[in-house]
Amino acid sequence: xxxxxxxxxxxxxxxxxxxxxxxxxxxxxxxxxxxxxxxxxxxxxxxxxxxxxxxxxxxxxxxxxxxxxxxxxxxxxxx
Length: 79
Ligand SMILES: [Zn+2]
Description:
It is built from 4 helices and no strands. By secondary structure, it is mainly α. Zinc ion binds near residues 26, 29 and 62.
């Protein structure tokens, strides 16, 4: 399947729009994920640097699955 240039343009625009708040990407997310999970489990307030992790998790299905597995693993260790 071949895209016309204007279709590609639209696709790029859509991609950019959905990633508006996502400043860290999957790499940054996986680096911060443990810290974020820890804060979540401790019930401490999420700082700005961790809020971007939450924003990414809201938008990224694969990171969300990873995060869920991490949280469940941590809960098992801690509880
Ligand atoms: Zn991701």
